Amino acid sequence: MKRFTLVVLLLISFGLGYGFNRLINPVNSGPRVTSLGGIFFKAKDPVALKAWYNKNLGIPMGDYGANFEWHQGMDSTKKGFTLWAPFKETTKYFQPSEKQFMINYRVVQLDALLAKLKAAGIMPTDTVERVSYGSFVHLMDPEGNKIELWEPNDVEYAKLGTATAK
Fold first, then answer.
1. How far apart are CA 40 and CA 142, in angstroms?
2. Domain span at residue 10?
3. Model pTM?
4. Mean of the pLDDT values across residues 71-79?
5. Chain mean pLDDT for the chain
6. CA 71 to chain centre
7. At 138, is the pLDDT very low, low, confident or very high (cuts 50, 70, 90)?
8. Residue 23 — φ and ψ, nearest 5°?
9. Both 41 and 105 in a single domain?
10. Are residues 52 and 15 located together in one domain of the fold?
11. Most buried pick, 38, 103, 161, 165, via CB within 10 A?
C-alpha cells in the first residue's frame, strides 16, 4: 500500500509540476499569428453574392458578410470568429495590393509583433486602428499581397450581434 501511495503522490507531483510549468511557460507564447481572422475578396456585386451564399449554401449573412463562430483551443468557453466578406470590385481597401483578396490574421500581442516586424525591416502600410472589437494594421507580404493583422477582442465582437455560421 505504501508503494502505491508513493507512486500516486509522484504522479500527482509530476502532473502539478507539468501543469504549473505550462502556465508559466506556455507553448507558442509571444507575439504571433493564432489563426485566420477573415478572408476578404472583391466581387462585382457583393450584395447579390452574399444573398446567393445565404440562399444556396445556408450561410447567414450580416452587414459585413458571414461570421463563422468557433471556440478557442484550450478554453472552450471563449468564442472566436472568422469573417468571410466580399467587397465591391472598386474598393480601395486592398490598396496598395493589386490582388483581388486580402487575408486577415488573428494575432496576439500586436504591438510586440509590429516591433518584431519593424526590426526585420517589415513596415506596416498604415497605423494601428483601435476599435472596441480589436486592433488592426496592414502590411504587404513579399508577393505584394496586402494582409491585415487583427488582435481581437472577441467579447466585444460578439456584442456586435452579427449573424454567425457554426
1. 19
2. 1-30
3. 0.69
4. 80
5. 82
6. 12
7. very high
8. -70, -40
9. yes
10. no
11. 38
